[in-house]
Write a structure and sequence with these properties.
Layout: H1 2-13, H2 22-39, E1 41-42, E2 55-60, H3 68-73, E3 77-78, E4 81-88, H4 96-107, E5 111-114, H5 122-129, E6 135-138, E7 150-155, E8 158-163, H6 165-170, E9 174-175, H7 177-182, E10 184-185
Parallel strand pairs: 2-4, 2-5, 5-6, 6-7, 8-10
Antiparallel strand pairs: 1-9, 3-4, 7-8
Helix pairs in contact: 1-2
């Protein structure tokens, strides 16, 4: 566990300098973060069909990782579970039967990385997964405040992250206090006229 935290801490301080390699190095670091988030999150017992069911990382929208995230999780195990990456597109234009299949694929994700290409769908997506044990992650300004669980941010050319603890609680996810100690905790914005404390 300490090794994971050291890697996470080092990744959070890694610089992204060269213009051509900013995206590739940035998303290599972000892929490492997503993998480590999986290691430092507990899902409710019923989240997995079988004890050996894999942890499913879904990428919704335009995939900024490419093959990088596949390489990061390749042959890795977390608590005896493999890790699988699925790519999903937004379901608006799908016919009813396809939409149901898409919704099923979406709700089978344990971690859902929401690409910035889906910024116009954020509120709807957060509404769909509210109360479902899915660790939502994005790198879109305001994502955590709007109800996403973790938002990756660039701060002084370093990848850091924000956590909405209330959104994690609503999703019945237990995020390690060691991970929270490295995060910027953000309050959830007012929703339906109520503000989360």
């Amino acid at each position: 566990m300490i090794t994971v935290l050291v890697c996470l801490s080092l990744a959070s301080q890694a610089d992204t300098h060269a213009t051509d390699s900013v995206d590739s190095s940035e998303y290599l670091i972000k892929a490492g973060f997503v993998y480590n988030f999986a290691k430092l999150t507990e899902w409710p017992a019923g989240s997995f069909a079988q004890p050996e069911s894999p942890i499913v990382i879904g990428i919704l929208g335009r995939d900024p990782f490419g093959a990088t995230i596949d390489h990061v999780v390749d042959n890795k195990q977390i608590n005896g579970r493999g890790v699988v990456v699925k790519r999903l597109k937004w379901g608006d234009s799908l016919k009813e039967r396809q939409y149901k299949l898409w919704m099923n694929d979406l709700l089978q994700c344990n971690i859902l990385f929401v690409s910035s290409s889906e910024a116009t769908h954020l509120d709807e997506l957060i509404s769909i997964v509210k109360g479902v044990p899915i660790l939502t992650v994005a790198d879109t300004p305001g994502f955590a405040k709007r109800g996403g669980v973790i938002n990756l941010i660039l701060d002084d050319n370093k990848v850091r992250f924000e956590v909405n603890v209330e959104a994690a609680r609503q999703a019945n996810l237990n995020i390690s206090s060691r991970l929270l100690a490295l995060a910027r905790i953000v309050p959830q914005s007012a929703v339906d006229g109520k503000k989360s404390e």
